[in-house]
Design goal:
This protein is mainly alpha-helical. Helix content is about 40%, strand content about 10%. The chain has two helices and two strands, in the order αββα. The protein has a two-stranded antiparallel sheet with strand order 1-2. The chain is elongated. About 0% of the residues are buried. The structure holds zinc ion (2 copies). The site of one zinc ion has 7 residues, from helix 2. This is C2H2-type domain-containing protein. Keywords: Metal-binding, Zinc, Zinc-finger. InterPro entries: Znf_C2H2_sf, Znf_C2H2_type.
Length: about 50
């Protein structure tokens, strides 16, 4: 990751998409294709939205 600082998350994501090829969010929900930064946030999402 570069040493630039970002004022907010949207700016960071835009920079990342433009300048870096590697994905920032590596954990993808297989039900709705949303990406998450951590395994924990993905499992939280799943338990919240995909309980079955
Ligand atoms: Zn960068
Ligand atoms: Zn989902």
């Amino acid at each position: 990751m570069c040493s630039q600082t970002f004022t907010n998350r949207a700016t960071l994501l835009r920079h990342y998409a433009a300048k870096h090829q590697e994905p920032l969010f590596n954990f993808k929900c297989d039900k709705c294709s949303i990406f998450f930064k951590t395994k924990w946030s993905l499992s939280t999402h799943k338990s919240k939205y995909h309980r079955d």
